[in-house]
Amino acid sequence: MFVLAAVGSAVGLGNIWRFPYITGENGGGAFVVVYLVCIAAVGIPVMMAEVLLGRQGRQSPINTMRSLARRSKASQGWSLIGWMGALGGFLILSYYSVVAGWALYYVYLMAGGTFVGADGAAAGAAFDAFLANPGLLVGFHTLFMAITIFIVGAGVVSGLERAIRWFMPLLFVLLGVLLLYGATSGGFAEGFSFMFSWNWEQLTAEGVLEALGHAFFTLSVGMGAIMAYGSYMPSNTSIPSAVLMIGVLDTVVAIAAGLAIFAIVFANGLEPGEGPGLLFVTVPIAFGNMALGVLFGTLFFVLVTFAAVTSAISIVEPAMAFAVERFNAKRWHVAFLLGIVCWILGLGTVFSFNAWADLHIVGEMTFFDFFDFVTQKVMLPLGGLLIAVFTAWVLPKKIVQAQLKLPGGRPVEVLWEVLIRVVAPLGVLAVFGYTLYHFFFG
Ligand code: PHE
Fold it and tell me: How far is the CA of 110 from the centre of ligand 1 (A)?
């Protein structure tokens, strides 16, 4: 159950929507390598740490951090990890819901046969027309938020997680269909070499931070979501093997989505650096030009929406768990309040793509860019850094060992120690430092 829930949390828009488009924006190749290194050397160890903190604390992330800090005779300031996560949840869900609304709208478009026989120009025009229509964007943002509020409020989360057992394999099948289409489209080889060539000259300091931030985002690590789930994990389940499995599955989905999408990009002469619309201007072409495309395409976007819902419920879990614990609040009330706040914040993202496209709230950033930046590039890496430092340097070592029960003896133990004590914290710090340096000194 923990693995299902955590896979539901991890696999989402981050894999299918975000990973391909940021890979395209950052020139492919080297970016993908850095991303994979970040997953393996930072994301997975920090995820193990986050799960073990949750399972040791068995409370909401805020109170878990409080009680673990007390047990470690450390400052209550460590509860910052929990607070930042709860706040980050609001910010992430605000734009997550808007983009999930896009997927929901595409269920409708696909089912209506809009893309039958469509080429790149038609798919692009349909997406542009959609983005230019704030009313429609708000409508689907509202619909997605309502679904999330309903599920979180009614507490049917576990029923939904059982459904992951069926939905996740189906998602794999449909990604397979897309890959098959990609393989016969004439763009596969080019897409493959785009993703896996060593084009280091394309990689910027910002791209490295992007890869690191995305590694946290896609694994749902650094803001307490996985800590909250860990608090429900039975004591006899192995953390290392569960986390490894989640990490591998999550990465496979992202790579498969990327390969399929870039095959379509190159077969149709599209732009890899298209930006946040990449998923929506590529995948419809494929489904629009294959047998049973209406059926498969509709199902695909249903599955993307489902994957987004199972992630969304984990994004609000840290705040939800705290409110229920601290104020004895009713789930419905919390869900509603959370939903309304995120919905309002989400309007900033909606208008970033039309009416406020030229409204730069910080530097060159629109609302969407700003929420995305603050959460992925600041809060998640910072949260991950603090989680690593707390687990490795503050929490008594015997607690960590008792929770982790690393298999494989001394060599694995040494590897864990090196990753969590040195590589993860210094990795995040180095990337932060490098980015700041470039920001100030060009
Ligand atoms: N991991 C989710 C995705 O890839 C997003 C997420 C981020 C979920 C942070 C929970 C916490 O879509």
Answer: 25
